[in-house]
Structures
1.
Amino acid sequence: MKREDLKLKGYIDEPVSDKLDIKNEILKLKKEKNAVILSHFYVKPELQDIADFVGDSLKLSQEAARTKADIIVFVGVHFMAETAKILSPDKKVLLPDLNAGCSLAESAPADKFEEFIKNYPDHIVINYVNTTAALKALSDVVVTSTNAKAIVDSFPEDQKIVFGPDKNLGNYINSITGRNMVLWDGACHVHEEFSVEEIVRLKKNIPKQRFWLIRNVKNQCLLLLIMWDLPHLC
Amino acid sequence: MLKFSQSDDAKKYIVATESGIIHQMKKASPDKEFIPAPPKDSTCGCSDCNYMKLNSMEKLYNCMKYELPEVTLDETLRKKAEKPIRKMLDISDKLGL
């Protein structure tokens, strides 16, 4: 396969024989090349099972920062591999398919975001880690969903903050901290897809089920979560 | 969410995030049931990040064999982008996250 084709397709499109023990071959290559495989929670089960580390963005970035491997293979999406490269510039960072983007990262183009923050010169800029390197470069600190509240809390209460790109996570942090952070209007399309009506139906049918949501789903879901967190409704 | 699903004592859970995480939840608690929350316009009963699902064993194998595609960055941009990530990692370390 030619390099130009790779650019066009975004991944190596070479046929792999059905007879090949692909799992074994990957493990052999990993050993030969002193590579580490980091897989995100959201990839297919077999890709999680073959990884050296499986985790969320925070855990995987911590592993990328401390690894002694020569090659980091990031089985996730582009911004995560980029984060690994930012933290480990001397290592080769690979991503199996360059088309693996992120709708949230794409909802915040750096040029438009830069214009936006010019309106708030006395604010610090906190961005969710699901962003391009160009957007990170415009940030004072980044956060993941795991540490977002703790990091926002680490700033004085009167600190003015612009938070991006995820308005759902921003709204959630505002609601639990009582802050009034200025929010960029971005979102993840998967988290926007959940149907409140369907979730209510599911919950009603099976009332003993526990219910919880990732912190950056849309507001209506957040309100439901708060309602159901009340002991008499759980 | 994963930690919560391990320490909590219920047997059934509706999980309203990308469905891939359910694999780890099942592995950690094989006796519990995890139901993906339904999205709006689909009858499949799960919500998948299509970008994440572009990864496959075949692409991973080829990627490791040929060491491509590689992710590279302009050094000036990399340095600017590193500061806010290091700050996050420092605060997280201090807080034991």
Note: The beta strands of chain B are 12-16, 33-36.
2.
Amino acid sequence: MQYRLEKRPEPSRLMLYLSPVAAVVLTAVVGAVIFSLIGYDGVGAVREIFLTPILNPLKWQDLGVKAAPLILIGVGLAIGYKANVWNIGAEGQYVIGGLAGTGVALATRDFSGPWILPLMVLAGILGGMAWASIPALLKTRLRVSEILTSLMLTYVAIQVLNYLVLGPWKDPMGFGFPQTVMFTSSQSLPRVIPGTIVHLGVPLAFLIALIAWLVMSRSLFGFQIRVVGAAPQAARYGGFSANRTIWLALLVSGGLAGLAGIFEAAGPFGRMVPQFPTNYGFTAIIVAFLGRLNPLGVIFAGLAMAVAVVGGDVAQTTIRLPNAAVGIFQAMMLFFLLASDILVRYRLRRVVPQTAGSAA
Amino acid sequence: MDANLPHRLELSGITKQFPGVLANDRVSFAVRPGEIHALLGENGAGKSTLVKMIYGVMQPDAGEIAWNGQAVTIANPKQARRLGIGMVFQHFSLFEALTVFENIALGMDTSTGSRDLEARIREVMATYDLKLDPHRVVSTLSVGERQRIEIVRALLLNPKLLIMDEPTSVLTPQEVEALFETLRQLASEGCSILYISHKLHEIKALCDTATILRAGRVVATCDPKQETSRSMAEKMIGAGLKDIAKAENRSFGEPRLVVERLSTRAEDEFGVAVDAVSCSVRSGEIFGIAGVAGNGQNALLDALSGEVLGTDANAIILDGKPVGLTDVNGRRKLGLCAVPEERHGHAAVADFTLADNVVLTARDRLKMASGGLIDAGAARTYTGKVISTFDVKATGTQAIAGSLSGGNLQKFIMGREILQRPCVLVVSQPTWGVDAGAAAAIHQAIVDLAAEGSAIVLISQDLDELLTLCDTIAVMNEGRLSRALDVGEASVEEIGLLMGGVHGTSEETHIQPGGGVAVPA
């Protein structure tokens, strides 16, 4: 008996929604096996990573706070990826966005008022856009792959961060620690649920994802992104410029990454520190794909990935799972998602070799 | 042709099922030694699937293939070649950067010393009058010459059956005649030929027997010399053939599209540039552009539609307005619509719904996008109108474009542009790969649009189509456009000479009238 992959007459909608679920399940199973084999409590690791954050109400606020940047960045990346613009450097745009907002905060220390925070947010968005415009320029002018340039610029951004917090922006009263001064209350995101750490950025992230969904499905901009991604030649025939689309896609994904950056800086961090880059920009790549490049899907994927992030923290303390374990789980999730995606367009069929009239 | 000899090839009850479609349904026919046997059918009738099974590329689900009276299983093309079955595919598999000789040597199943091989190649070329220099690099050859490589490659194996898949679609009329001479000579030596085509007059001129396929089944076997083209066409499509209603002695109005020394650069190193093309198309006129594939027709369409811009605004004048530097959207708003040759991924997005495909080109002229938002209701209404007016077989406005058959998708695309009432319509290969019923509907729609006063540019490789529809015809070769000929005056020979006569650069003119090739000795 033999199995063969066979092209479906049309893509299966069921599999489209089922394959992310399958990816999560396969990740849990294979993760449990791997961690058992290397001497940890594998089943415990899966339970702590995937179940504890959901079952323990005290962890729900963490989920929201971790999901917010993942959703924001994931939505931006999903829009770009739809247009076949492969921005891999959201982490760098996130860092520069955070730095630009921090710059505004440091310059406005002697002031107070409700205008400061919006200015910081604006600076964050523009910072992310500016960083993403470098790959856009190189791609449209010189045909340089945005995959490489955006990724490499991430490391440049981190060095810029290190330079600023170790040098010009270092808090003089900070006992030599490489960090800026704390933001004032006019420079910090207000909490929206009293008694929790849920800041204003969390509901805004969900709102922005909803708006992005509307824009992608109803507007000419969304149409343009979809056509350019699905059939570049048809896009040109339809009057959509490829270069313009590359610019738009990178500016949107860079801007949203920058926004996530300033939300983190003005929210959970409250200042700029060298530990600011926490791989949200890379994890959001997985979130974008797990969410099927659909902003609504990205909301669910962002929450699912937040579970793994929060659960990873839990597992580190309760069963001493190394920090890298979370990375392994995330990577497996993307791997299994891409692998199970083949079932959207293909199906497995049993073939009886070499006899007339194959089994239906 | 001795009736007592066993059939060279006999198929009985061949059936092949693909997901969702029965490609071949109990197909049976036989080919005698030395017979030129036509396999005739519309696109999608199952011809290609059938010959792929004969050549061992695919296996039948049911049925039997007999070779010289013996039942055989042809597991792969290599085995087919060992039996003596040669095939010349419609799309060649040649390395552009290698020479003729290297390409042939790479395709051999058994290794032969290069001197022996070259001697045999020269012998085959001399025997069948196939003029070709073995040491020329393939990228410098015309399509007709490339086809000769494939034929030589097949003949080196001394085939007993040669399968030719749509061999003339890329040839000039003179090259077609030369090919037929070769095939007749082969047949007279006892080699059977299975000739796949949908060009009826060629089959009448060449073939001894024709097996007609429709929707995967054999519907008739006939002697093409006893049939008319029309009777075979009607068997092929299974219905009466409609005539194109075109008014006699039509008069033309003012020029609506004037092109004056239009040039664009080639988009890549293998592309052909549009080189100082000039023409003028009047209101009500259908202006045909003939030419062998790959001579810049696609580049011309892109230049006219605005996908690729030239450098001179006055190179294209649309209803008196210079639009040479206006982009696609601007030209469309002014009334210039275009339909490129490739349906999937160029004229339509295969993964999108029909309604979304309407938004692709009709959004501005029909006001489907106001304030940056798409008016989905307007798009659906217009899509429904296209579907009903052009009799598109689809499940509805939300059907995925890629799920439509070629003919239906082409009718949809043509309808989408024609119902926008363009003042100039540029179409390339509107009936390529389209069934005869759809082709007739598309032809009628083009004629009707012209009758309403639009100017039409029709780019096609199908001379019959051009001569039926067009009022004026010009020939494209190496990116240049010949002078325009009135269709009443132009002869097929003259057009054929223009199509192939000036191939190559001035110092290396290869194809001469009659299809011979001058090679430096």
Note: The first strand of chain A starts at residue 2 and ends at 7.
3.
Amino acid sequence: MHDEDVRLMLAFREGDDAAFDALFERWASKLLRFLERMVRDRAVAEELVQETFLRVHRARARYVADAKFSTWLYTIASNVARNELRRPFRRAPHDSTDAEREGAPLELAAEESPVDEIVNARREGAEVEAALQQLPERQRAALWLAAVEGLPYAEVARALETTESSVKALVHRARVALAEQLANARAKITPETKPVLLRGGTR
Amino acid sequence: MTTERDAELSALLDGALAAREERALRAELARDPVLAARLAELAQVDAVLRALPARPVPADLRARLHAKLAAEALPRASHGVIRGGAPARPNRRRAWFAGASAAVAAAAAALVVVLAGPSGQPAEDAGAKAPLVATTPRAASPLGSDIALAASGSEASAPTDERNTLVPQPETALAGAASGSPDPSRVASAAEPAPSPERPAADVFVGEPEAEAAGEASRALDPSALALAPSPGASPTPSTLGTAASSPPAPQVAVAPAAELLVEMSDSEAAALGELEPNDVGIVAVLDFLGALDALEAEAS
């Protein structure tokens, strides 16, 4: 259990402030990506990254290296995101996706789409991103942590304060829903190609 | 394709199947192209998600974090005092605090403890055991910069000839501990300073040892006997609290455990409160007092 992050956290607990900065450098980007998907707002996600590290800072004396640092960090981040999403009068999220910022259209042109793999990939990404945002919060978190961050189900379960079997179901439902959206997106992008989608049995 | 089979494929992608289950499923995938195609569909989701571009972390994010950490590191007591102008980025919490502080400050300003006997008082009053209580005149703003808060030890056998002066003691009990109703004749008024031949008056709050809760005292005040203390020099002792323009020395005040501060405000006082600004110097003085009390309470606990 003594990975580099744990070593840094233990050093920080003992008063090494540089270790805290090192942890920030190592994790800020991943946390930002995760939290941006959770709250759907870049600026809010940046605030939540800060809040997550503030909590790490406050809790340093209580830190016990009984789990991977990433699990602990995502547990904090998930709670921070959940609090934000539960906040009354939360402002409407600004769906600023990567593709939008980079100038790619969010609306897919079903006709006259350039057959360009890069453009299509970007559009697929935008479609899947938009579909991801429509998922329930816990599905979104579970899928991201398992499929993108590569956390084992046991760690995802700890981070989301649930069971492994629940995580398995959450990830599965999320993945199936996005697969359907992705197939639809590809059908729109290349309408001449009939999508081959093997839907789940009960849908 | 059943949901159960999808769930297995999903778990396979996440490496969450037991070794035996995984071997069985892979064998099935090798035989079943439809199942294999479904696995590919699900895997595509992961590929697309992972390919989503990651924007860089803003360069100033760490600096912003450190600024918040620095703000958190400030001592709690200093949070309780608003110094200087309004905060650069007022927020709801700060705004709430300013409002609440103003109310508390008004309460504190309305309760002043002194130990002194006014002119012409019988000598037995000088040896009062309980803190003396006085309030600000009802017609005046309770938070004016000319208010001095004085806390007074009650053990002191204040000489009668030091009436109209603040004689604070280190082991001061706050006004709320006092009981009994004030004797109107012993309260000096700023508008109508207590007639004291020895002093220029107007620097004393005088109450009765038996004074009851402050609210009662407030009502029973004789305006003609109230004094608003011109803050600087009101008392030479370090435990004197409250000069608006200058930082008061660290007060040595103890709050009586059972103290209850009961304050009744007139409409004019309430209106005056509503007009106060967070950087009002009077509030600063009072908040300094409250912050010091806070710190002492923390120490005591």
Note: Residues 176 and 202 of chain A are 11 Å apart (CA to CA).
4.
Amino acid sequence: MKLYNKLFASFFLVFSLVSCDSYLEQVSPDQPTTDQTWVSYEAAEKYMASTYSYMQANGWRYHEYFYLPQNFRADDIHPEYGTTAWSYLGRIVGFNNTASDGVPSVMWYYWYKGIKLSNDLIKNVPEMDVLTEEEKESMVAEARFLRAWYHFNLLKNFHEIVLVTKVAETPSELQLPGSSKEAVYQQLEEDLSYAAQHLPAQWEDAYWGRATANAANAYLGKILLFQGKWQEALTALDKVSGHELVAGTEYRGLFDGSMEMNSEVIFSGAFTAQQMDALGLYHQLGVAMAPGEINGGWHMASISDYYMNALESGDIRKAATVVEHGETFDGETILFDDPEFNMSIKYMESLESITTNRSTVDLIFMRYADVVLMQAEALYELGRETDALSKVNLIRERANLAPSSASGTILRDEIRTQRMIELVGEGHRFYDLVRWKIAAEQLNASGQQYAENFEEKHQYFPIPLEEVQRNPNLTPTPGF
Amino acid sequence: MNSQHHHFLFGNYRKLIALIAILFSALPLWAQTTHSIQGTISDESGISVPGASIQVKGTTQGTVTDMNGHFQLNLNSETATLLVSFIGYLSQEVTVTPQQTRFDITLKTDIQQLEEVVVIGYGTQKKSDLSSAVSTVKAEEANKLAAASPAQMLQGRTSGVSVISGSAPGAAPYIKIRGLSSFGDVQPLYVIDGIPGGDISMLSPDDIASFEILKDGAAAAIYGSLAANGVVLITTKSGKNNQPTRVDVNLYAGIQEAAAHFPMANAQEWYNILEQSYNNSIADGALTEANKPLYLQAGSGFDLSNYADTDWQQETLRQGRIQNYSVGISGGSENSNYNLSMNYFDQEGVVINTGSKRYNFRYKSSFEKGNLKVSPNIFYSHQTTAHNTIRMAYMLRSLPVVSVYDDSKESGYGYLNEFGIRSGANPVGQSDIIRNNSTRDQLQANLGLQYKLSDSFRLIGNAGYGKSFYKNRYFFPKYTLASDTRREDPYLSETRSEWSELNYDFTANYNTELGKHSIGAMAGIVGYRYDYRNLDMNVVGGAIFPDFGGLEPSFNSMQAGDFLGAGGMQTVTRFSVMSRINYNYDDKYLLQATVRTDGSSKFGANNRWGTFPSVSGAWKISNEDFFEGAKEVVNELKFRGSYGILGRETTLGAYSRQALVQSGYWYVWNNTPIGGIGSFEMANADLAWEEAETINIGVDAGFFEDKLFGTFNYYQNNSQALLMQEPNTPMSAGVSPPIVNLGTISNQGIEIELGYRGEAGDFQYSFTGNMTTIDNKVVELGSEEGVLPGGDIAYTGAQTFSKVGAPVSQFYMFKTNGVFQSQSAIDNYVGPEGDLIQPNAKPGDVIYVDVNGDGIIDSNDITDVGSPLPTLEYGLNASLSYKGLDLSLFFQGVYGNKILNVNAYESEAPNSGYNIASKLLDAWTPENPTSTIPRNVQVDNNNNYMMSDRFLEDGAYLRLKNIQLGYTLPSTVLEKVHFSKMRFYVNADNLWTLTNYQGFNPELVPANALTQGIDYGSYPMYQTITAGIQATF
């Protein structure tokens, strides 16, 4: 009996006192923590790649959540029933969206994820001893460029946004107040100026697609232009160097994937057919823009008659942008059920891409033509009409059009029209109309079928209801 | 209630034995008399015991007492030892001396045998000695239901336990005890044969002997940090010592069928509703004729009669077969016993291509050698499941004009992309082509050791090692199921995971009696280790033969494809020290106290250890002397009270406190995919235990010799420092919601269980009922606003919110008030400034209530419209038997809750692009002005179709869960066929439901604690009809 008691006592003691705390100390054996990540240039670079990945979504998510709200709400592209028959998409283009609509919340969600990862890099990279000062500056510059890019997209789309420059470290820091547009612009100017200063003008080919100093200057120019700071905008845009307009003969190559790396593109969103089945790094703009009779397209939108009427004859951009009934595309004659239908072919590389529901053409976010047209606009607003005219004529010449000699508001309208023709389907028009305060007017002028629903509040999306529900520092956008 | 049952049976038995004994005692005795003795035998309360046996030890000589407990015996010698025994009492030896002829013997009650003993966790206790709230469900009550899973056996059987069985074959059940007490996981702890953490869906219902549900803090506290959601102890069947070998067979087979059909439009109805919606929008000026899709345009050449009229529910739902075969062999010798059982269960789903099979094997035994007892228990289970690959919400809304099969299409399944009709994935094609199968294997080996150091001191050790393997295989070939649903290449994905759970405990147990004082003490340690590994691999394309040439697709046959893999590992450890003391004075006053200290690897060093104490007491007033007079009416009455604190950590992942970096983000540089890394997690070194503070006050009573019996409990449960994903993490923060300790929820209510048993001749009947009221309330929340939104519902944002002072997961929605019947109603609906509140409205549009009175309908008008949590849950059982016939009925119901019918929301908008409910035919029109269904439009300027309380319905129901009619063959017949028991039965489950709810099924498994009462109609509830045989030989 005594022996048993002793045995029992020692067994109990051994288990309860000696082994416990080491027994209970468990950390993940195979996943690093955030503290263990910042150990090499390669690790930071992998973090950077993830930071880019929230600029866009893959597959159907891209055209529904990103392309549609950024392109189907203006006068140049009109929604068709492949969009309007689906109520959650129809509400976005029909201007009866509510604060709980999912499409804008996905943009909000994705872009703030990108901001979060940018902020991680901005905070941690300067503390990495293994990097040279130059590497640190370049990497921080790239992250600040992306942070600005994400914030600018939010700013263009939403009534009110939250400026996030720091990652919350405790739960009490998760909810931030809304920021004034001025405060956001102020931060973006700082970020993009820093990026322009510290990023390379060009990456070597293996890194094609990463932000450059030129991209930073072009975006800096753009956000200044959006604020009406014409001279500062011009100064920034003039710093874009080493880029040029591709020749008219190469123009279609910008949009069909045959010439993705070129001197005109400054910043783009990249897709690839490599490991397509496994990774799905493709979008579906080809199938989305085609009508059902063309290889089973989804008939989501068309180039508007308003746009078609704005085209001058001989404009080489027409064939690069739109296919009409009876025209040839990808070697075949295209016949639509509705002969009036105008099919957008930007980012549609082939008929095969409609059949397979897969397109891998890179999406252009910034190209030199945009820079030239922004320069023209800034120059015009600064009263330098001759300089403005020469810029817009660069665009016209490349399009095989005779130079314009317009002046005054006719010149202003010519710049605006060239912006529409040149940049259709690249996510600019609606935001241009809003900043020029002519959105309602142009929607009506172009006969957009939901134009009468458009009110001033529809210039921007409301803050997503889910954000308001979780962030007591924000109030719901009135009227939604 | 079961202890009373035993009393009752026992009472009858005693009479019977007495009768037999008296008959025998009338036989003449030839033995030679040398010493004549006599006396009486009585029990502790002095009542005489008729029929008791008096045996002379070492001889065959003996007698039994008469009706008055009197006996007389003529012995052959003047000295002898009498062995006095009677069932239910401890046997006694009495020494006979030559001087003594009169023996008045008092038999002591054999408490172990007389009274029901319940398992309480690291020990057992007499049910009558419980001072805490424990419910028992015996298998013999519950196994009448042709239960597909052990969870079904529990449903409605006892108060305080809410059970919702997942309806898909093989799906996990949802069980919660005494209300929703956490924002995280609310599933109770399952302890199977003493080993915590089991998965009850792997068990065969035929293997289960009993369930014990530890409901209050004092009962569950011995499981400390595992116990805050309550504990369900499951004891499997075992053999008994000295039991001849017996074989039990249970066979049943039957059919199952979906219980409801959601009324969707047929082809003509679809066409008419769509046409009406376009015409209305054109009349509104919102559209022109040219905006109509071609199928509605005159002259387009569209002819509806060329198209199919498919009822997709008809095509995807079917009658499924269910069958179950169980064999058990049990027995025992003097020092050992065994039970071997095997089970095969096969259930075809009511959705095509779904089903589940389960194979079980269990060997449980016990060997005694001297003071040592060894109890091995080995269990193996193999389960295969064919999962549903149809997206049911889309199936419901698939267009009727699409044909199921179409030979002109590549895959042979119909779809449309013509005349402006674009159909989605063909549901039958989805089900046939996309295969998703899983198998699960579990091997559990337990060893129990018990060593008796003395009568009062025992050492007990248990170790259980369980190893589980899960394998999932998901495959589809190249297919086209719609113009937007196509795969260019075959795809194969396999997931393997394996995990092991090691549980061990070592306890010292001490029991002693000192006069009227009875003391029990237990102290020990418990350890736990969980290891998990998983591996996922998938491949796309690269098939050697494009159609596999009839071969099984595998990673070999697709080696040229694109591969992706993932996998990892986790370990969780826990260690606990515990002790328990029981004190009983004179079987009148009971006291129990426990304390358990737990340490878990899920927490950081700051808060790793938690201590969970409890205390409970009871007063058996019916054992008091002064109660004697009342005993004729009230034979048992006990008051109980308890208090305890329990812990919870289940919401935490193994490494929740760490911020881990993930891979799998992809971007493209230089046209080359770049695999990125990133983290959206937030570290929290201060995570601490959730604590649930519980109070229970109860009464157990029996009346008229337990003919009428009942239990009453009042409970209160405050769960605090709740672990949850920080729900107020806005999207703008960019991080995944971190896990934090936040908030307090209280649940309080009463539980009543009542039963009545009786008989009239050969007719026997019993009725039992139970009810639980639940008053759930959020007491405190971290944020100042005190609001936790639930999950997104059908892309409309959160519809459920948990606010301080209200129940968890309350519905907050736009409130409606019918439809505008006239233009004047619209014109008169004005705000404070006299402006129209709904300026875009037309007659037939929905009236939204301007809750805040500001004259605008916007998100500020979203308001409280009801709770998804029932305030009352109840169950009713009736058992009737007459000679060999038996009939039982079992009803179960809930009351006081609302359900959001998401299928209705999604199928009542003609502009959704999908099929719609046929009720839209009855939508408001000027000719049908009394309709409450808003008018059909395409351009929904009044937002008629947005999520609102229009889709919120009364969720109360009363359901006949089970009705069973059985016939047991009489023993005269059985003897001829050498069976000791044979019963035939027919059984029906879910035969009848009384409810106002319009969806598939008001019994819902919630998505999570914050998002309750949402019906996506994902898998239909079914009715089952089976016939079976139970036989023993």
Note: The first strand of chain A starts at residue 77 and ends at 79.
